[in-house]
Design goal:
73% of the residues lie in helices and 3% in strands. It is mainly alpha-helical. The protein has one domain.
């Protein structure tokens, strides 16, 4: 069943607008998340992930990086990722930092299963849920990364078919 022509025109306009602006909105919104969460880490105890993050860095660095230094380094990394995403500058480097930071973020699932799982492997604690939501951030990074060479979303599948 076909859509009435007035609705079809509006559908095309809205879809075109989403294709033209969606990646920008995604990049800036993910940047805000990183900037916000990273900024909280500059102040001990404000970030809900503070203890878990510093414990993870302590374990991964074999105790070579003290808690305050770990928290500040993580805050700097996350705010730099946020600024890079918001401004769109050094996007390849920013995305590399994002993916590296995300690798570190999932390690508590392995290193601290007692803190991240109520019942392994299905029932997550609040900390575990906090970590798993990062799958969305990784997916967003992949979409943004697909556009760093000038690509964009396409709102019309016929354009794709014609270029194949």
């Amino acid at each position: 069943m076909q859509m009435p022509s007035v609705l079809a025109r509006w559908d095309r306009r809205i879809t075109r607008w989403m294709a033209e602006h969606g990646v920008l909105f995604l990049r800036v919104s993910i940047g805000i998340v990183f900037l916000w969460f990273g900024s909280l880490k500059f102040f001990p105890g404000l970030s809900p992930a503070d203890q878990l993050a510093t414990d993870t860095i302590d374990l991964l660095s074999f105790g070579l990086i003290n808690t305050d230094t770990a928290r500040i380094l993580l805050a700097l990394l996350e705010t730099a990722i946020g600024i890079g995403l918001i401004t769109g500058t050094f996007l390849r480097l920013t995305l590399l930092a994002l993916f590296g930071q995300m690798l570190g973020t999932v390690t508590p699932l392995i290193l601290f299963p007692d803190l991240t799982f109520e019942t392994f492997p299905f029932v997550l604690t609040l900390e575990g849920q906090y970590i798993i939501k990062n799958l969305v951030l990784v997916s967003a990074g992949l979409v943004i990364g697909a556009t760093v060479r000038g690509g964009d979303l396409v709102d019309d599948p016929e354009i794709l078919a014609a270029s194949a």
